[in-house]
């Protein structure tokens, strides 16, 4: 992101009244920093977020969100502000461990990001941490996207399905072994396919995603949870595996399959929310903000 540092721009936006919406049971920072999306940057007290071909910015004050670049309806959908948050928490608060995580990270929501961007993001996440994923995505956007601007800030749009069409450039984006999977997804996946997943039962949607080269259980569950509204999805990565084994299995080694079954059975239809709270709890004393490989 680059600032177009002109006095005229600063003066113009200093007099613009930004739209606001009242919010409760929501924490913007926890939501943006819990490893579920990667194209968000903080500039002073604003977060700038890109969604495909547009930028929006948002900041939180006591009781409301101030925003620019999208409308109220989009913001409510994107941050899942229409979800019954107290009911969700009541359903997953099954023990002192999850209650501790909820208390610490209260207000964190599971977002509904763009499914295509989410798919590419988590293909980049294999054997990578968040700074590496962000680097890959920004380089892909620079190579394949277009310049977009909001409030004097420039960024790059995210390429659409079919536009990641130059394998060598994908490699140049420092994607490494992931390049072949990104190209395969580009060639195979359509907007219609991703939209159709929302109409399927969870297991069928997951099975369909796993037909894409490079997409295993964890990546499929991330896509289902963070973009398609399947709140029962329960991604198992290194962090979640460690904390589940520690807190719920007396430090015994448990297979990923058993853990995947445990999540929805124990936490119910909003198991994905429990997963995110436990993920934040697991990494709270560790720097680096990793989203590890499958």
Describe the 3D structure.
The chain has 294 residues and is an alpha+beta fold. 48% of the residues lie in helices and 14% in strands. It has helices spanning 7-14, 28-32, 72-78, 85-92, 96-104, 115-123, 130-144, 167-175, 179-188, 191-197, 202-209, 217-227, 238-248, 256-267, 271-283, and strands spanning 2-3, 20-22, 40-43, 46-51, 54-61, 64-68, 128-129, 147-150, 153-156, 290-291. The strands form 3 sheets. The protein has a 5-stranded antiparallel β-sheet with strand order 2-6-5-4-3, with no helix packed on it. Helix 8 packs across helix 9 and helix 11 packs across helix 12.
Features:
294 residues; alpha+beta; Endonuclease III, domain 1; Endonuclease Iii, domain 2; 2 domains; 5-stranded antiparallel β-sheet; 3-stranded antiparallel β-sheet; 15 helices; 10 strands; 14% strand; globular; disordered C terminus
């Amino acid at each position: 992101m680059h600032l177009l540092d002109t006095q005229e721009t600063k003066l113009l936006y200093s007099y613009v009244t930004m739209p606001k919406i009242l919010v409760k049971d929501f924490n913007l920072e926890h939501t943006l920093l819990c490893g579920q999306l990667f194209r968000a940057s903080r500039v002073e007290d604003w977060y700038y977020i890109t969604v495909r071909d547009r930028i929006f910015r948002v900041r939180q004050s006591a009781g409301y969100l101030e925003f620019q670049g999208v409308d109220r309806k989009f913001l409510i959908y994107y941050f899942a502000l229409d979800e019954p948050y107290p009911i969700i928490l009541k359903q997953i608060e099954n023990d002192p461990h999850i209650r501790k995580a909820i208390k610490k990270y209260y207000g964190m929501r599971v977002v509904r990001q763009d499914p295509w961007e989410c798919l590419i993001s988590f293909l980049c996440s294999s054997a990578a941490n968040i700074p590496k994923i962000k680097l890959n995505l920004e380089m892909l956007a620079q190579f394949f996207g277009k310049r977009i601007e909001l409030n004097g800030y420039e960024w790059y749009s995210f390429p659409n399905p079919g536009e990641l069409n130059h394998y060598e450039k994908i490699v140049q984006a420092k994607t490494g072994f992931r390049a072949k999977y990104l190209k395969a997804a580009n060639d195979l996946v359509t907007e219609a396919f991703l939209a159709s997943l929302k109409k399927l039962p969870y297991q069928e949607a997951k099975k369909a995603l796993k037909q894409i080269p490079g997409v295993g259980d964890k990546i499929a569950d991330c896509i289902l949870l963070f973009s398609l509204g399947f709140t029962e999805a329960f991604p198992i990565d290194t962090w979640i595996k460690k904390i589940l084994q520690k807190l719920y299995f007396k430090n015994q080694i448990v297979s990923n399959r058993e853990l995947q079954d445990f999540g929805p059975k124990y936490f119910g239809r909003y198991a994905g929310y429990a997963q995110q709270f436990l993920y934040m709890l697991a990494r709270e004393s560790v720097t680096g903000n990793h989203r590890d490989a499958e």
